Amino acid sequence: MTQQNKPPTEDLLPGKIYMGDGITVSYDAPRCTHVANCVRGLPAVFRPKERPWIQLSNEASAERVTEIVRTCPTGALHYALYGGPPEAPAVPTTLTPIKDGPLTLKGDLVIQTPQGEVREVRAALCRCGASSRKPFCDGTHARIGWKSEQPGGQASANQRGDGHREAGQQADAAQRE
Ligand code: SF4
Ligand code: FES
């Protein structure tokens, strides 16, 4: 194996790495909102009830895997082809609000996060205000039943669980006393 054909795992975003023949796929679980495009698109490879849940050996075509990974709207899935080109950003950049869910973006994205600047080609950004991984959506909108058409469009304090955090802080304080 030549240097340029080494698995380019260092180019991938944080997440669990799955190695295949000529392709590496990464999965950043907190950014998955379980819309299941991957499972519908390539059920032999994306098998959520099994471990490992991504089984690249079940698909001979790395090209087919890249097609399905690119349908992941949240950026939870990425790929790198050994010696192949990286995923090209969509042109023009598009932003699509998902009903009762995040804003999804495709394009040449530069996203400011608490951990620094992130270059992305696909992302789902939280608009309910309750994600624990802002600016990314982490699926909390579904758990709290957030509705995008509700007045103000932001999760209430109860939906965000602010009250629970306050209760937790009070409990912590009580234990310290
Ligand atoms: S968000 Fe991406 S990884 Fe998660 S189920 Fe959907 S397509 Fe698959
Ligand atoms: S929109 Fe998904 S967690 Fe806020």
UniProtKB/TrEMBL annotation:
<dbReference type="Pfam" id="PF06902">
    <property type="entry name" value="Fer4_19"/>
</dbReference>
<feature type="domain" description="Iron-binding zinc finger CDGSH type">
    <location>
        <begin position="112"/>
        <end position="147"/>
    </location>
</feature>
<protein>
    <recommendedName>
        <fullName>Iron-binding zinc finger CDGSH type domain-containing protein</fullName>
    </recommendedName>
</protein>
<keyword id="KW-0479">Metal-binding</keyword>
<dbReference type="InterPro" id="IPR018967">
    <property type="entry name" value="FeS-contain_CDGSH-typ"/>
</dbReference>
<dbReference type="Pfam" id="PF09360">
    <property type="entry name" value="zf-CDGSH"/>
</dbReference>
<dbReference type="GO" id="GO:0046872">
    <property type="term" value="F:metal ion binding"/>
</dbReference>
<keyword id="KW-0001">2Fe-2S</keyword>
<dbReference type="InterPro" id="IPR010693">
    <property type="entry name" value="Divergent_4Fe-4S_mono-cluster"/>
</dbReference>
<feature type="region of interest" description="Disordered">
    <location>
        <begin position="142"/>
        <end position="177"/>
    </location>
</feature>
<dbReference type="GO" id="GO:0051537">
    <property type="term" value="F:2 iron, 2 sulfur cluster binding"/>
</dbReference>
<keyword id="KW-0408">Iron</keyword>
<dbReference type="GO" id="GO:0005737">
    <property type="term" value="C:cytoplasm"/>
</dbReference>
<keyword id="KW-0411">Iron-sulfur</keyword>
<dbReference type="InterPro" id="IPR042216">
    <property type="entry name" value="MitoNEET_CISD"/>
</dbReference>
